[in-house]
Design goal:
This protein is α/β, with parallel strands linked by helices. Strands 8-7-6-3-2-1-10-9 form an 8-stranded parallel β-sheet. A two-stranded antiparallel ribbon has the order 4-5. It is globular and about 50 Å long.
Length: 348
């Protein structure tokens, strides 16, 4: 497995591969389980993760998987640590290391992500548990002319940079995730303006903290109008605005960009990713995916907590991974949605 920071980052998104974000906390996963009447226990959460990570041939389309503290300490039903299972299947194990977004003092309705205290020691432990890359998420909310404030963007950019510096110190490639939330009534243009400002803050902070740009992966949100009345935007408009924002702000030295899905439906997130990669012109980095629900939701629905339906869940995950890997090279065809994966693909 690759060990240099640059090689790790590149391996996550090479040849159309992407990242499976399976780093939900037990509380978040419990809420998702409740939709299908699944009891949430350490054992059911372990069984769900095992179904995902054991999907035959998943490593063809997934370069790495982001785990959570509970998951990286768990083992399969055959007593194999999940990090080892992923590595054996050609996928790099990663770990979410932030402790969540907390209210930002002095601001109304904004948050700052916490978790820097004791992070050096936690990173060292995760390294021994098999992690090869890390993730930290910052959350930026748009609310008309009021939010986001400069102090919120600055505080979150600084935390992202301090985290990234500590991760690189431990030989772990950091995924830097500044998410501009789709919640709200903002327009496409307003989202683009805020994302431009936030990415500028992030890369300014990364430089100030001596973070090596060739040893990170950027996980941004796409440029989207707010889901609460922000208007409509075509797939092509979203793609053009998103790529323009990236070209204005992301250094060429960054090995790759892997989008979060940010609440989009599975099919729409794939369509947007494909449209971005079909746009003409030269871009210095591969543009791929690091989806959570947009990859997992169909699998969770198909599995529904029933062991006898684990194969259905695995097939649903592989289908979405395959579609998104095609989108990451601009080769997605909507007719791919009409058929489940061929059995031959599942046997690889």
């Amino acid at each position: 497995m690759p060990e240099s920071l640059s090689a790790i980052a590149q391996a996550l998104v090479t040849d159309g591969k992407g990242v499976l974000a399976a780093d939900e906390t037990p509380g978040t996963l419990t809420r998702r389980f409740e939709q299908y009447g699944i009891a949430s226990t350490p054992d059911t959460r372990r069984a769900y993760r095992e179904m995902l990570f054991s999907a035959p041939g998943l490593g063809q389309w997934i370069g790495g998987v982001i785990l959570q503290d509970e998951t990286i300490r768990q083992t399969t039903s055959q007593d194999i640590p999940f990090a080892d299972l992923l590595a054996e299947r050609g996928m790099l194990p990663g770990i979410k290391v932030d402790l969540g977004a907390k209210p930002l003092a002095g601001s109304d309705g904004e948050t700052v992500t916490e978790g820097l205290d004791g992070l050096r020691e936690r990173l060292a432990e995760y390294r021994t548990l098999g992690a090869r890359f890390t993730k930290w998420r910052a959350v930026i909310r748009i609310d008309g002319q009021r939010l986001p404030s400069w102090s919120c963007m600055h505080a979150n950019a600084h935390a992202l940079a301090r985290y990234a510096a500590l991760a690189q110190e431990q030989g772990l490639a950091p995924i830097v995730e500044p998410e501009v939330l789709m919640d709200g009534a903002h327009s496409l243009a307003e989202c683009e303006a805020v994302t431009n400002r936030m990415l500028w803050e992030v890369f300014t902070a990364l430089v100030a903290e001596h973070v090596l740009p060739e040893g990170i992966l950027l996980k941004p949100s796409m440029i989207l109008p707010g889901g609460d009345g922000g208007g409509q935007a075509s797939v092509e408009d979203v793609a053009k605005a998103t790529l323009q924002c990236l070209l204005h702000n992301v250094p060429a030295a960054v090995p790759g960009i892997a989008f979060l899905s940010g609440g989009q439906s599975a099919n729409l997130a794939t369509a947007h990713l494909d449209a971005i990669n079909r746009l003409p012109g030269i871009r210095p980095w591969p543009i791929s995916f690091s989806f959570g629900r947009a990859l997992q939701d169909p699998a969770l629905q198909a599995w529904a907590g029933k062991q006898e339906r684990a194969g259905d869940g695995a097939r649903a995950l592989i289908h979405r991974a395959r579609c998104n890997a095609a989108a990451a090279i601009g080769a997605y065809d909507p007719t791919m949605e009409e058929a489940a994966p061929e059995p031959a693909l599942l046997d690889r």
